[in-house]
């Protein structure tokens, strides 16, 4: 060991610096591509070979070292931010970052990500020190690194995304989505109003149903689907890929475009969430529904409590309200309640709602499959064996089984009579242990309707979570205007969805340029620039350029 420490290689700061930089480069390559982790060593080897071949850090004709600060330090630091986000979530969603900063993140449960953030920060600091040493001791790098600055800035997806957020300023048509928005309206009601049970299964996407890739992890949800309508092809649009955005997409029919510069108090927490929209809770509340939301995590995180309070819900339960009622308050994960505890409370609450006689709506959000590893309950470990702490498929199987058991308990107690049951993923999963297999093919969300006289079926449509809103309303027996609500189209109708008409990529492109829909979402929080107007301008529902011959009766392509 002593002789190893005396090795010239280890005593030379040049090779320490170059090895650190090569290791960071290798990690960046495998993080941003589908390449296996082991290839990071190949990248390191190539880097060190080039360093030896070109005498990096020890040029043949050296100049005196200069005490300079590289121009590239800030661009490199920004790349480390992006690497952390890519490592955490797979796909970096800037909309999610903006929204969470405004809506609140203090009650989050991502303890593992805090540890990762500390590790990434330390790695970034070490790499920046190594890079500074290289620039100071190799005059060639002092010349190249100014060009490197431009390259790092131009290729950073984080900065590219930020510039795209400003595209609405110069776009020719920032009202494309808003013209397609239909105000939700219940034209007719069923003779007997059904109850509504909505179960959002955290990140439990339908992609897991592929047995060749994921085995039997999804089998219990397949069994649930045999009793109702299973929808295939429910895609994820931009700004719908995190929990609050997924809930708003499926209950309000729009992507969650963060308030951004429309919010006139940028550094204060939001007081309302999408106040300009009429959502499912608003409609059902007017029909006399008693509405309850229950989730095991804090209702303060990401504005969940604000959203449900502002959109017709009577009762909102989060971690704060449920933990004091637990027999064992220590039986918690980093986010909150395990789902076996949550479902016990949900059963108790639904019994109370059913006893009141009025139609009820109960919305619940699970935690079992929350990335990156999941939070499987003890009852699952008794059934499935010990959890290794990383296998997300273990958690998917646990979530599916707990959901099936919960629905069976409700059914045996007669609590699903005259009830529409909705089982849906809130969004596609972020980066998990099965990530490489998940991204092998197009992915879709779980969406199942059960009960209320719906005959079992399987419907294949190119759709999005925006379409859940009108589909659920029609599944309950309501007649809605044009089979549409918000930007969604009922999948029980023959009308084509926004995705079928325009394609997912085109909608995402339009979303980056949209400003009118963003103003609609946050009407009331934006600067009061219109308050002197006598009346708001009439909404333009169509332009000649939008017309497509031979389209269906809605007239909107």
Automatic annotation (TrEMBL):
Chain residue ranges for the region called Disordered: 522-557
PANTHER family: LIPOTEICHOIC ACID SYNTHASE, PHOSPHOGLYCEROL TRANSFERASE I
Transmembrane segments: 12-30, 68-85, 114-135, 147-163
Statement: the UniProt record of this protein carries the keyword Cell membrane: yes
Ranges of residues in domain Sulfatase N-terminal: 195-477
Subcellular location: Cell membrane
Protein name: Sulfatase N-terminal domain-containing protein
């Amino acid at each position: 060991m002593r002789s190893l420490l005396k090795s010239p290689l280890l005593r030379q700061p040049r090779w320490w610096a170059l090895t650190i930089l090569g290791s960071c480069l290798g990690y960046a390559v495998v993080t941003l591509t589908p390449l296996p982790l082991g290839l990071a060593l190949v990248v390191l080897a190539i880097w060190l070979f080039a360093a030896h071949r070109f005498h990096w850090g020890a040029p043949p004709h050296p100049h005196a070292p200069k005490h300079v600060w590289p121009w590239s330090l800030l661009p490199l630091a920004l790349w480390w931010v992006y690497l952390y986000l890519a490592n955490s979530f797979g796909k970096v969603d800037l909309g999610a970052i903006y929204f969470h900063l405004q809506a609140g993140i203090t009650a989050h449960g991502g303890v593992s990500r805090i540890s990762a953030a500390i590790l990434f920060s330390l790695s970034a600091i070490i790499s920046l020190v190594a890079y500074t040493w290289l620039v100071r001791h190799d005059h060639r790098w002092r010349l190249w690194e100014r060009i490197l600055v431009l390259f790092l800035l131009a290729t950073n997806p984080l900065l590219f995304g930020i510039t795209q957020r400003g595209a609405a300023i110069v776009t020719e048509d920032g009202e494309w989505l808003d013209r397609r928005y239909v105000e939700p309206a219940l034209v007719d009601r069923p003779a007997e109003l059904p109850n509504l049970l909505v179960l959002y299964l955290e990140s439990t996407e339908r992609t897991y149903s592929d047995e060749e890739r994921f085995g039997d992890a999804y089998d219990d949800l397949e069994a649930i689907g045999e009793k109702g309508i299973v929808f295939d092809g429910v895609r994820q649009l931009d700004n719908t890929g995190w929990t609050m955005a997924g809930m708003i997409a499926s209950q309000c029919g729009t992507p969650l475009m963060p308030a951004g510069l429309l919010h006139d108090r940028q550094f204060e927490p939001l007081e309302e969430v999408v106040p300009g929209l009429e959502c499912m809770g608003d409609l059902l509340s007017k029909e006399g529904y008693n509405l309850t939301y229950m989730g095991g995590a804090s209702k303060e995180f990401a504005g969940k409590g604000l959203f449900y309070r502002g959109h017709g819900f009577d009762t909102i339960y989060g971690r704060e309200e449920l933990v004091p009622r637990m027999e064992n308050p220590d039986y918690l994960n980093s986010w909150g309640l395990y789902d076996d505890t949550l479902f016990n409370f949900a059963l108790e609450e639904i019994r109370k709602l059913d006893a009141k006689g009025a139609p009820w709506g109960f919305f619940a959000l699970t935690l079992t499959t929350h990335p990156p590893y999941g939070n499987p309950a003890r009852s699952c470990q008794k059934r499935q064996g010990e959890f290794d702490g990383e296998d997300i498929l273990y958690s998917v199987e646990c979530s599916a089984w707990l959901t099936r058991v919960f629905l069976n308990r409700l059914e045996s107690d007669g609590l699903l009579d005259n009830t529409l049951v909705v089982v849906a993923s809130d969004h596609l999963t972020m980066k998990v242990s099965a990530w490489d297999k998940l991204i092998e093919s197009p992915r879709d969300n779980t969406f199942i309707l059960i009960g209320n006289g719906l005959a079992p079926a399987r419907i294949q449509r190119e759709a999005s979570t925006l379409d859940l809103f009108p589909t659920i309303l029609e599944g309950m027996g309501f007649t809605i205007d044009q089979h549409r609500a918000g930007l969604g189209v009922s999948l029980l109708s023959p009308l084509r969805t926004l995705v079928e008409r325009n394609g997912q990529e085109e909608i995402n492109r339009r979303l980056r340029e949209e400003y009118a829909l963003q103003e609609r979402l946050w009407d009331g929080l934006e600067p009061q620039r219109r308050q002197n107007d006598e009346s708001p301008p009439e909404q333009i529902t169509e332009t000649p350029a939008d017309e497509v011959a031979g389209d269906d009766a809605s007239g909107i392509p």
